[in-house]
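Data card: per-record layout.
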Amino acid sequence: MSRLMPILLLALAACAAPKPPESPGFRRAGTPIYSNAVFDAARLEGDWVQVAGFGAGCRPGGVSFVGGQVRTKLCLGGREQAFAGAFAVTGPGRLALRGAAPDGIGAPWWVIWVDTDYRTLAIGTPDGSFGFLLNRGGPLPADRLTAAREIFEWNGYDLSRLTVY
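The structure for this 165-residue chain is written out next.
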């Protein structure tokens, strides 16, 4: 029996479920992501400050939305990225930066949460390449940070990789 034990263990190991693939970004692979169906893009107008993001290594930035145009300088996935140009609403709670590199800042922006007064905005990407939190009108209150963290986690983001500035 002792000689059969290693063979039995190898046979059992071969039957084990394969390990799921690692996500190349900040979200668990295969986790659904949801955009905000009642999002009102007209309420984006104005300046927003980046208060959190996934990854570290650069300074936080901000976003300005004015009349269908966007100007950004953000820390995304540990890299500073900037864009100035048009944006479009591509679906409920979904934005696209026209002409931006799709493998960087131009990845689809999905609004996964916004508070009812449009002071705090959580944006994620379906591929998990980045996610960030914007705020306006002063410091980010703890209750809105808690809500944003819960939404990021619900959408599969690894909260251990969230940097709050």
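Known properties of this structure: The domain at 4-164 is CATH 2.40.128.20 (Lipocalin). The chain has one domain: 4-164.

See the next section for split statistics.
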